[in-house]
Amino acid sequence: MKPLNSIVAGCPPSGIRRFFDIASSMGDVISLGVGEPDFVTPWHIREAGMYALEHGYTTYTSNAGISELREAICADLDRRHAVSYRPDTECLITSGVSEGLDLAMRVLLEPGDEVLIPEPCYVAYGPCVSFAGGTPVSVPTSGRDGFRVHASSVAAAVTDRTKAILLASPANPTGAVQRREDLAALVELAVRRDLYLVSDEIYERLSYGMPHTCMPALAGARERTVLLGGFSKAYAMTGWRVGYLCAPTPVVELAGRIHQYTMLCAPHVSQMAAMEALRNGEDEVLEMVADYDRRRRLFVKGLNEIGLSCEEPGGAFYAFPSVAGTGLDSETFAERLLLTERVAVVPGHVFGSSGEGHIRCSYATALPLLEEALERMARFLRTLG
Amino acid sequence: MLEIIEILRADAHASPERIAALTGLDVAQVRDQITTWEQDGIIRRYKAVVDLDRMREITGAEVVTALIDVSVTPARGTGFDDVAARISRFREVRSVYLVSGAQDLRCIVTGRSMHDIADFVAQKLSTIERVTSTATHFVLKTYKDDDELFIAQESDRRLPVTP
């Protein structure tokens, strides 16, 4: 047989898989390894989905997505972030941010183009760049200053082949929220070196204390930014697979071209449900965010008390404490914690080498389980001495 | 501070220590605030939400609930208040509301049997002066009560580890 595609074959499977397999085979596991809300989609949104099914909204939609939904998304972005996109030419409904990310990379990159990715980062970033023929270049950040992305370190990694900077704020796995001035400095760098910015803002509604900075709302950013957003985290709609890509017309035009041939359209029922989410979901979003925020405080305080030092994460639903003090690498720590105390966490190195020495804990877990997990982790730490 | 009430309304058992950890407030501050609200009567009391149908399976003791709508002739000076207060004082009566619509008061009444409640309506409620009629609706099944769902809960369908 002739060899399969070397880029795909050369991409290792996600390091998360191994922990999934072990955790799935064990009973009584408290999982802090889940990267999605522990809420079920609010009932009125599910009910809108059922209504859509009952009334036969089971067809294709236009490639770009239902126009009312695009209008609602653009109006929402304008209202909350004062960033304006034209629903008809600058907004595309995607099957989640995952598709949006893939489209952005395929539209922006020529073979060999480099994309700068501050790490630790979501596991799909590097592979999506590679699949699009580009080269991911990681820019390490450090837990010592809350995983701030410094424009100077990003600038140091820029070469003649650099095409774009890809980042998320709030971020998975660190929960870090970038300061407005740091993002403004990145925009300035992008302008100076003529780079695109791909901003994954899937966690934007889950920001605690600090108002979210929407990348394209920064001066000079809009014309070179691809904004990726969605419904999964804010409205607890991960399984519906619906998100959006907003960017200047030439980018959306080409992204739409790939989308029309590969995805055709995002699921019709999910688009109808997303419309209901935007129209009537605000109260639930605020309730869920308040609930995450409380668990965040309790859990981060608990981690620090049992001896795992953890900066206050400003967003998402992850804590990314350091396990360096235990003398174990993150993989060993996570594996032993799972096998001895049945608490599943994700070792930090799967999110990039600068994640080594940390573990990702999702606090999107019921409060009693979070408290039990902290007790088990404390017991595990005592055995390490 | 309002977060304290939100947390207590969802879980009256939440300790000041836990509330402090959840809100980032000081434990002493939380304790003081709760005491103040208790003394002011803003927090009236703490009670459990019980699945009465399942309790009956265990204890065998029947509990019957009825919603009773009551028509009242209002009086000059007091309106419905004096009659509502009289009804409210019966121990069988759990809740009393003045409502809009065809009737005036809606009461929630519990008893050990339908007969008990029928007796209460005939002997006590309808004999109160200015009560002109009553309509009794027996509760056949409880699906949701005071924010609590008594229908099948949804289990956590998430995979144990996801990116």
Q: What do these coordinates show?
A:
The complex is a heterodimer of chains A (385) and B (163). With 385 residues, chain A is an alpha/beta fold. Chain A contains 13 helices and 12 strands. Chain A has helices spanning 6-9, 16-24, 43-54, 67-81, 96-108, 125-131, 151-156, 180-192, 249-262, 268-280, 282-306, 330-341, 367-384, and strands spanning 30-31, 91-94, 114-119, 135-140, 162-168, 196-200, 225-230, 243-246, 318-319, 343-344, 346-347, 359-362. In chain A, the strands form 3 sheets. In chain A, strands 2-8-7-6-5-3-4 form a 7-stranded mixed beta sheet, with helices on both faces. In chain A, strand 3 (114-119), helix 6 and strand 4 form a beta-alpha-beta unit. In chain A, helix 3 packs across helix 10 (268-280) and helix 5 (96-108) crosses helix 6 (125-131). Chain A is globular and about 60 Å long. The relative contact order of chain A is 0.17. The model of chain A has no long low-confidence stretch (mean pLDDT 97). With 163 residues, chain B is an alpha+beta fold. Chain B is 36% helix and 21% strand. Chain B has 6 helices and 6 strands. In chain B, the strands form 2 sheets. A 4-stranded antiparallel beta sheet of chain B has the order 2-3-1-4. In chain B, strand 5 and strand 6 (148-149) form a beta hairpin. In chain B, helix 2 (16-23) crosses helix 3 (27-40). The longest helix of chain B has 14 residues, at 27-40. Chain B starts with a helix and ends in a 14-residue tail after the last strand. Chain A binds chain B through residues 14, 16, 19-20, 23-24, 29, 31, 33-36, 38, 40, 122-124, 172, 290, 294-295, 297-298, 301-302, 344, 346, and chain B through 3, 6-7, 18, 21-24, 154, 156, 158-163.
